[in-house]
Amino acid sequence: xxxxxxxxxxxxxxxxxxxxxxxxxxxxxxxxxxxxxxxxxxxxxxxxxxxxxxxxxxxxxxxxxxxxxxxxxxxxxxxxxxxxxxxxxxxxxxxxxxxxxxxxxxxxxxxxxxxxxxxxxxxxxxxxxxxxxxxxxx
Length: 138
Known about the structure:
It is a single chain. The chain is an all-alpha fold. The chain is built from 6 helices and 2 strands. Strands 1-2 form a two-stranded antiparallel ribbon. Helix 3 crosses helix 4.
């Protein structure tokens, strides 16, 4: 997902998405609605263009972090953004959208699962061996 950041709006979107990603990996929550993360109910109502824009924003966030690491090597760590790039770097945008759509279609009882949890569990986690220097439980 190598896309160049274009303007301040892309940077702001990436920062907002980046902040919300941290909440996703703070453990499972009993009430996902409180997390304010994009979930299946909202995803299902979004247009294809909006879904693409969301995934593009996640890619932008990962690219911006990688760019910053290039300028400031001391920021290098085994991060979520690095794992996004590692697992999805060559995956077309529409493939990601279609896999998310397919998950919710196959699992209608899981519409409360955050979209990025689906991306992590279904597309990233199976392709990576470590996160934050620790083995990923599969």
